[in-house]
Amino acid sequence: MSRSLNKIMLIGNVGDDPEIRSTPNGNTMAKFSLATSRTWKSSDGQQQEKTEWHRCTAWGKLGEIIGMYVKKGKQLYVEGRVEYSQTESDGQIRYWTDINVQEMQMLGSRGDEGNWSATPNPEPTSTPPQPTSEPDDDLPF
Fold it and tell me: I want to staple 79 with a disulfide (CB 3.0 to 4.6 A). Which of 14, 17, 65, 103 is the partner?
């Protein structure tokens, strides 16, 4: 059996407030852009920087959460899959690359409303491990 994987993970800053829409059947969609940057030194020692912009779309409950809490400039971790499409207008074909967001986590300090994550269908979490009652003076450091 042949298997494949289409997964992308990004950490970046939101370029503008998300655009929220509802489909005719009531499904929520959030569209936003996410900027990722990289820096390096060129061969002559000059600092270089390049920013990539990613078109992101989230659906359903995750789209609603993004609409409520995500604003321009907010740092996010997003995880999803890459989707390619094309449109034609006036004889011109335009190609699009979109990130279909399946998980999102807001990053930043507590002053930025804290860290939290959202998934459209969170999986049940296991019971956290219980602390042991060993005395601290037995630790090797």
Answer: 103
Q: Which residues of 80-97 are buried (b: 16+ CB within 10 A; e: fewer)?
A: beeeeeeeeeeeeeeeee
Round to whole Å and give the CA distance between 119 and 104.
7
Instruction: Report pTM.
Output: 0.72
Closest Cα to residue 76, out of 6, 8, 9?
9
pLDDT tens-place string over residues 54-113? 999 999 999 999 999 999 999 999 999 999 999 999 999 999 999 999 999 999 765 555
Q: Which two tokens stand for residue 129?
A: 């491990």
- The pLDDT value recorded for residue 71 is 95
Torsion of CA 64, 66, 69, 75, to 10 degrees: 170
Fold of 8-39+48-118: OB fold (Dihydrolipoamide Acetyltransferase, E2P) (2.40.50)
